[in-house]
Amino acid sequence: MTGSADRISSGFCASAVTTTSRCRSATAGKPVFRNATYLQDAGISFGGLNFYGAPWTPELMGWAFYLPPESMRERWAAIPDRTDILITHTPPFGVLDRNSEAKACGCLDLRLRLEDLRPRIHCFGHIHASAGKVEARGTTFVNASIVNDRYEIVHRPQEFNL
């Protein structure tokens, strides 16, 4: 899952791909990864579980994957009802979404969609100050951020059993 640190003006190659051949593949629309599937408004079934990924964020206009509110609602509505594991960049409002100034920065429309969806796991990042895991309403919410606001690695990756 790519994130908001990937600027639109920089493009995918400048921020997410490190080799020239991979950059050429990405810009030509060819697969970049050998052992991974990139999920952008897409799902995949693996091991009997349904995964769905969406990189959108309701803030940071001018950055990659920003969308205005109406477009965000459309993207969240498109998440299949039978999603077991949801992977988004932004958190839902009120769940592990407090920034370093204690402001809730999550997406209210995503939270509203989750009330009906109720995946087993919802994994996200974006808000570095709220890394961690919490369970609520039958869903394990995981803010998988491992860095602080200066992009220094300060947290271990989250692990859990399915």
The coarse overall form would be: globular
The main pleated sheet reads as:
6 strands, mixed
Tally of DSSP β-strands: 6
How would you classify the helix and strand content by structural class? alpha/beta
Range of helix content: 10-25%
Strand order of the largest sheet: 1-2-3-4-6-5
* Distance separating the two termini: 20 Å
Which stretches of 5+ consecutive residues score pLDDT under 50? 5-19
What's the overall average pLDDT, rounded? 83
Question: What features would you highlight for this structure?
Answer:
single chain, 162 residues, alpha/beta, Purple Acid Phosphatase, chain A, domain 2, six-stranded mixed sheet
Summarize the structure.
The chain is α/β, with parallel strands linked by helices.
Protein topology:
Blueprint: H1 11-16, H2 20-27, E1 42-46, E2 49-54, H3 69-77, E3 85-88, H4 108-117, E4 121-124, E5 132-136, E6 139-143
Parallel strand pairs: 2-3, 3-4, 4-6
Antiparallel strand pairs: 1-2, 5-6
Structure description:
The protein is α/β, with parallel strands linked by helices and 162 residues long. It has a domain at 35-143: Purple Acid Phosphatase, chain A, domain 2 (4-Layer Sandwich). The chain is 20% helix and 18% strand. It contains 4 helices and 6 strands. It has helices spanning 11-16, 20-27, 69-77, 108-117, and strands at 42-46, 49-54, 85-88, 121-124, 132-136, 139-143. Strands 1-2-3-4-6-5 form a 6-stranded mixed beta sheet, with no helix packed on it. Strand 3 (85-88), helix 4 (108-117) and strand 4 form a beta-alpha-beta unit. The longest helix is centred in the last third of the chain and has 10 residues, at 108-117. The model is unreliable at 5-19 (pLDDT under 50).
